[in-house]
Amino acid sequence: MARSHNKRLMRVVMVVMSLVVVALLISQLVQTTDPLQAQTLPEIEFSGSASITVDENIDTFTLTVDINQAPVSSTVTVDYVALPASATTADYVLAPGSLTWAIGDDTSKTITVRIIDDTVDDNSEFFYVELEDPSQATLGTPFRKTINITDNDAASGTPTPQVFADDYEPNNNFNEATETAADAANLCDLTFYPPGDNDYFRWWGKAGITYVVTTSNLDPGLDTVLDVYNPNQSLIANNDDVAPGIFRSEVRFTASSDGYYFARVTNKSPVDPINKLYCFGIDSTVDPTTTPPAGFPADADVCEFNSTIDTACLIVAGETKSGLNFVPSLGSSQDTDIFKMWVKPGIFYTCETIIPPGSAADTNMIFWDNNGNPFNPWLGNDDKGGLDFGSEVSYLANYTGWLFIVVGPVNVPPLDEADLHEYDLTCTGVESTPTPTASPTSSFTGGTGGTGGTFATATPQPTVALPTPFPTPTPIDFSQFFTATPAPPPVVQFQPLPTSTPSGGGTQSAVINVTLYYDTNNNFLPELTEGIVNAAVALYDNGTGELISFGHTSETGMVTFTAVNAVGAVRVVVPFLNYSQVVVGNNADILVRVAPQPLPIGIP
């Protein structure tokens, strides 16, 4: 029994050890296949704008360096160095050094710079402080800071003027707020005179944009307090000191709506504010998604972000944009690309997507007008046809302004496959002119004998590039939509005959031009883009009833019959439109107009 008990105990121990080994293997596998660990490195950059201005008598000041990932998963370092320009090492003191972030550290670091206050009267000078050689990180923007030094030495014999109220006064309330803009140059040489002065500023903000509002370059003796207000003038954030011992102020917030935002700056220090200056500025940014989903693609095309009218990507006629795709940006779940092209009346524009080999893209294209609204009737296309999943849409412009081209996927691809849905976009423009009237090549000369049912030669017009023809309509009574005699007055003379009337002489030879057009712009004139394509046209000898000739309209909607021989008058028949007309004369130009009618919204 003891031996049997020992065997069971050994089996249990072996099973437990096996489970431990499997758990360790799974843990290692999870750690080594974490895509976020493998691909995400923090960015290191200077805080605020790419340049600051300091006075020569400031003694020392600090530059703040931010890291954008929290917490840091491994030790991060970056070097910094001063680079001389018009200012040299005689004007400042900063030895090369480095900054270090330990694992789990996400705090900003500072670099202290000393300015040498000499007695030489010279112009303002500048130098650079640059971040270099990051380890376990990448450099963000800005990684170089321009330091402008304002000289404080007056020319010999000239006393230094005192600074009282600044040039932006009065700006002591919301109504008097000084106008500025995000990412504009900082407003400097600001004062708090007289003591107790409030300075108000305003700028136009956009929903979803993050703004960093700062005071900077404070002269010794100033201590700013910054209050920020929304478009309703309600307080949304405030700050006294950005860090202990650093008396400038900074507020970061994301705008919740479009409108004017306000900032108020006050001085907390009781020191006399005469000759003491500071700067105010606003930077804008779009905060990245804090925790992107695993496998989120990072190779959006060069036009991103362009999913709104305001951010539409510019394209011009004759240009091709390559390497476009449906990779979303800004953390969105899908991508719709919007482009804009400047158009002018009388130009025929065509835009098409081209699917390169190996791409899984299936595009859908829609045109919007200058106001960003769909056209009526709808201008759009899904597939060019067959196995070509590209799209093509044409438009004869009748205004001067923007034409918006909206391209999206027919089926939204998964995020990890979005970069495989690649396409090119090309747009062209050609001048549109009315179809010219063909010149006659022969005339009625008379003669003897007939030609029976011999076919004359049908000469179609040369093929020109045109959009996809209108789809075949549902059979209806077209008699209410066309006029055999267009207005302005017709260029064709014809005479209906109730019964066959042979000429009584011999055969006659004629040239007959027939043009069928869908009068889209309702101007009663055929144009290059309005031809009805591939419609059958037949000619009969009205005296004998014999078929003389038969042909189809070209892409301009025109067919020309030459050397037409008939005993009497000629009857022109268009079966598709249920149209029949007898014509006489040595030549004939027949225009058959189909009046425009509203089409269903959503033509593919």
Average pLDDT reading: 79
**How far apart, in Å, are the first and last alpha carbons?**
83 Å
The CATH topology of the largest domain, please? Immunoglobulin-like
Number of strands: 37
The residue fraction in helices comes out at: under 10%
Class by SSE composition: mainly beta
CATH architecture of the largest domain: Sandwich
Structure overview:
It is a single chain. It is built from two helices and 37 strands. With 604 residues, it is mainly beta. The chain folds into four domains: 43-150, Immunoglobulin-like (Sandwich); 174-285, Jelly Rolls, CATH 2.60.120; 313-431, Jelly Rolls (Sandwich), CATH 2.60.120; 458-594, Immunoglobulins (Immunoglobulin-like, Sandwich). The protein has a five-stranded mixed sheet, with no helix packed on it. Mean pLDDT is 79; it is low at 32-38, 289-296 and 434-506.
Descriptive keywords:
604 residues, mainly beta, Immunoglobulin-like, Jelly Rolls, 4 domains, five-stranded mixed sheet, 2 helices, 37 strands
List the helices and strands and how they pair.
Layout: H1 2-32, H2 35-39, E1 43-46, E2 51-55, E3 60-67, E4 76-83, E5 92-93, E6 97-101, E7 109-115, E8 125-135, E9 138-139, E10 144-150, E11 178-179, E12 187-190, E13 199-205, E14 210-216, E15 224-229, E16 235-239, E17 250-254, E18 259-267, E19 278-285, E20 313-314, E21 320-325, E22 337-343, E23 347-354, E24 363-368, E25 380-381, E26 392-396, E27 401-409, E28 422-431, E29 458-460, E30 482-483, E31 508-518, E32 536-541, E33 547-552, E34 558-566, E35 570-574, E36 579-583, E37 587-594
Parallel strand pairs: 1-9, 2-10, 11-13, 20-22, 31-37
Antiparallel strand pairs: 1-3, 3-7, 4-6, 4-8, 5-7, 8-10, 12-19, 13-18, 14-17, 14-19, 15-16, 15-18, 21-28, 22-27, 23-26, 23-28, 24-25, 24-27, 29-34, 30-37, 31-34, 32-33, 32-35, 35-36
